[in-house]
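Exercise 7.
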Amino acid sequence: MRSASELIRHKRDGGVLELDEIRYFLSGVVDGSIPRYQAAALLMAIFFRGMADRELADLTTAMIDSGERLEIGSSGPKVDKHSTGGVGDKVSLCLAPLVAACGVVVPMMSGRGLGHTGGTLDKLESIPGFRTSFGAAEFARLVETNGVVIAGQSESVVPADRILYALRDTTATVASVPLISSSIMSKKLAERLDALVLDVKVGTGAFMESVDRARVLARTMVGIGESHGVRTTAFLTSMDQPLGYEVGNANEVAEAISVLRGGGPPDLTELVTVLGGAMLEAAGLDLAGARIRSALDSGAGLDLMRRMIEAQGGDGSVVDRPETLPAAARARRLRAERDGYVASIDARRIGVAAMQLGAGRRTMTDTVDHAAGITMSAKVGSAVARGDVLATLRFNDARNVEAAAARVSRAYTLAGRPPEERPLILEEVG
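Solution. The predicted structure, written as C-alpha cells, is:
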C-alpha cells in the first residue's frame, strides 16, 4: 500500500486511485491518522485532475463505507429526492409527505443553507419543536412508522463526507463535479434506496449557472447511482428566478403547506407534481401522475405532513394554521419605479438579500432568524405599474435592510414588452 503522500503524488500526476487505496486514505482521515492538510492536498489534486468513472464510483463506495448504512425495515420501495440547491426551493417540504402518501417510503436526509441558497432543515426548524437530528436507529424507526422522515445526516453516516465537505469549503475545491457528486450520492446511497430522483438547478440562483455544466453533474450522479444498483433519474430545472413567491424559512413552510392544500404557486406546484410522478415511476408504480394528483386533491399529502411533523416533535397544528408560524415584526415594500413587465429576476441577489435580513447564514456558525425573509409580489412576466409592490422585505433586525433593499431592487429588470416564456423543466437525464 502506498503512503498518503504517495497517493497524493499519484493523483496529482494524473494517476487513478484503486478502491483499497481510497478506503485506506478515507479511513485515516476519519480516525485522524492522516492529517487534514494531506486530505486538503488530495482534494486539490482531484479538483485539477478529475476522476475516472470507475474511480469516482469507488470514491463514493469508500465514503459510504466510512460509516454505517441505514437499516430500514419497511418492505415498500424506498425512493429519495435531492436538489442541488436554489432560492425559494421548498420542494422537499411538501414532496416527501406527498409521495409517502402514495405508498412509497421516503427516507430523506437533508442539509442546511449556506450563502444564497436555503436549507430544508432550517426551514423545518421554524416549526415549534421540530427535530432534525436523529441517530440511525431512530431515523429508521420514524421511517417505518410513517413512511417518511426529513432529517440531517447523523454522526455515524458517511463521516468522511462531513470532514471533506468542511475542507472543500475552506480550500476552494467546492466546484468540482467528482467531489460534489460523491458527496451527494454517498449520503443518498447510504439510505439503501431502490431509486433516486435528482433536481439539478440551473441559472443565476444555482451553483451550476450553465446547462452544459449542470448536464455534466447530472450525468455523473446518474452514473454513480446506476453503478451502485440504484435507479437514478435527474431533471435539469430552471433557477433563473426564485421558486414560488416566498424566500426564507417560516414563510417557505407556509407556502409548501399551501401546495398540499391545493393553492400553491403554479411553478412550485408544477415541480412538485413532476418530481413526485418521477419518484412513483422509479418505485415501479403505474398511473404515477394520477396518484400524485389524487394525494393532493384528497388531502392525503397534507395529513401525512401533519403526522411527519408530530412524529419529529413538532407542532402539527401549523398545517391547519400556518399563520401561527414565526412572523417578522417589521416589513419594507419595494415598488416599481416605472410601468413595464418583469423581464428577469436575479435569483442569487434575492437569496443573498434574504441572508442579509437574517434568513440565511454566511458561515455554518451563524444563527438563522426563521421569521425573516422576502415575499415576491411580481415574478418574471408580470405586468407592473409605477408604484406597484415588487417585493416585501420581512425582518426583525434592521441593520442590513438598506443593503438588502438595494440588492433586491437591482435583482429586478423591467422591460417594455413581456419576455418569452421559459420552461421550468429544461431536460431529463437518465
